[in-house]
Specification:
Radius of gyration: 21 Å
Distance between the termini: 41 Å
Largest sheet: 9 strands, mixed
Oligomer: single chain
Number of helices: 13
Helix content: 25-40%
Length: about 475
């Protein structure tokens, strides 16, 4: 369906590069032009559809490069399918997600990628792509990496934790880094010392420490920081850029900053849960703390300010949701009596833009930095520059009219994610997506979802622009 001509008029256009009161002209699926509001140029524009953005921000659609939709776990799946999860993303102003296809250990990368394509194709409400998780780095795996890069899968992930299924040792990670360096790709690392975590977990369970709060205790910040340090040194040897996912602790952020201070192409991501929640949530009465089990774990309150500061100074470059929802009933409850069996992950794809906007409301971030972290930087780093994350002629017309003064309360009763609880239940936030265009077509407008499953397209991505 053609989007025709759409005019978004009268709002404050905010991108990572500039702020200006401007009208945005959309032709079909692309942004055609921007002109100062009230200028002779803008006054002459006509359109099939006009959206009044007076008193609103006009921002690029969000780019969330860390989601886990339809993720298998212990005989079930994460609560959001690609259909439901991407619909919730649209509600929150995110128009692009990059999910993780997983290699089954001992099997080809292609098999895992095809499986994720089958789960997503024809179901997504927003545009999407995939990273490839490496669990078995062999000669055949490395050769397949070359082929995947050629077809637009230009980022890969390894785990330094979860030895039972996902863990790669240092030698495997180094080989993967050497390959991404040669291919112009980007390696993402989940940095926690998995074998050490397993030792602490076994001891805690043997001593009867089985409640959810002990999940954080066996994954101390020191083991996250140690793994980041080790990953940085491996990347330095390989001559490869490195992206550290879901940085949760001050010490880990300091390792990223130190590497960048030495001029290395090392990048870090954090998530809204580490900015707004603390390990105190794990102490909720009964088994309620299980709702807040995620890896890396939530940290004590002192770490939040360090993460906000790192976002402000550029020591961390991206905020993603790490959306990995499991229902409390029937899924999180699998860990009663053994915290290590609680599915790790929190829901959040719908609220990422709003929760990060609180940094603007509270004076922690500028408006442009908000858009840089949520839209521009993830698009640029993951091969989508010029198409996503900005409002510029020729870019996809992913446009969000955002009401910066709308106050609302986050809750399971109000959200659109297919999960039975909210990690932010009762939290009052300021700012909300009001109208969302995906490639020029309204998918959310006036409190109504107008999109459809299958409207989202798969995005082959370009090579990483991070220095190699």
């Amino acid at each position: 369906m053609s989007a025709g001509r759409t005019l978004v008029r009268g709002g404050l256009v905010v991108t990572a590069a500039e702020e200006l009161y401007a009208d945005v002209l959309v032709e079909g699926s692309r942004i055609a032009a921007l002109a100062a509001h009230g200028s002779a140029c803008a006054a002459g524009w006509t359109a099939d559809r006009t959206i009044d953005a007076t008193g609103r921000y006009v921002v690029p659609g969000g780019v969330d490069v860390h989601t886990h939709l339809d993720l298998p776990f212990a005989g079930s799946f994460s609560a959001d399918t690609f259909a439901g999860g991407t619909r919730a993303a649209a509600w929150g102003g995110t128009t692009t997600v990059v999910d993780f296809a997983v290699q089954t250990r001992g099997r080809p990368l292609r098999e895992g990628l095809d499986l994720w394509h089958a789960r997503a194709d024809g179901r997504c409400a927003v545009d999407y792509s995939f990273h490839m998780v490496l669990t078995d780095v062999r000669d055949a795996t490395l050769a397949e990496m070359d082929l995947l890069v050629e077809e637009g899968i230009t980022s890969f992930r390894t785990y330094m934790t979860h030895p039972e299924a996902l863990h790669c040792d240092d030698g495997q990670i180094l080989r993967a880094m050497q390959r991404t360096a040669a291919d112009g790709a980007l390696l993402m690392v989940h940095a926690e010392n998995g074998p050490a975590v397993d030792v602490l977990t076994a001891r805690a369970l043997a001593e009867g420490r089985t409640a959810p709060r002990h999940h954080a205790g066996v994954r101390p910040p020191e083991l996250e920081a140690e793994a980041v340090h080790r990953a940085v040194r491996l990347a330095e040897v390989a001559g490869a850029p490195l992206y550290v996912v879901h940085v949760s602790a001050r010490q880990a952020a300091e390792e990223v900053a130190a590497a960048r201070g030495r001029g290395l192409p090392v990048y870090g991501e954090t998530c809204p849960q580490y900015l707004h929640l603390t390990s105190e949530e794990l102490d909720r009465p009964g088994f309620e703390g299980a709702k807040y089990v995620c890896t890396a774990p939530l940290r004590p309150p002192g770490h939040q300010e360090a993460l906000w500061r790192a976002l402000r100074t550029g020591d961390l470059q991206v905020v993603s949701s790490d959306h990995c929802p499991f229902d409390f009933a029937g899924q999180k409850e699998m860990g009663r009596g053994d915290f290590s069996r609680i599915p790790a992950g929190l829901p959040g794809v719908e609220h990422r833009l709003d929760l990060l906007h609180q940094g603007v409301v509270e004076g922690r971030l500028s408006r442009r930095r908000w858009i840089e972290l949520a839209c521009a930087a993830p698009a640029r780093m993951f091969g989508l520059a010029g198409r996503k994350g900005t409002l510029a002629p020729g870019a996809d017309a992913d446009v969000v009219v955002y009401d910066p003064s709308a106050r609302h309360t986050l809750s399971a009763a109000a959200h659109h994610m297919d999960v039975d609880y909210s990690a932010y239940e009762g939290l009052r936030v300021t700012g909300r997506a009001e109208t969302v265009l995906l490639r020029g077509e309204p998918v959310v407008r006036g409190g109504e979802y107008t999109g459809r499953a299958g409207q989202g397209r798969f995005l082959p991505r370009g090579a990483s622009p991070c220095p190699h």
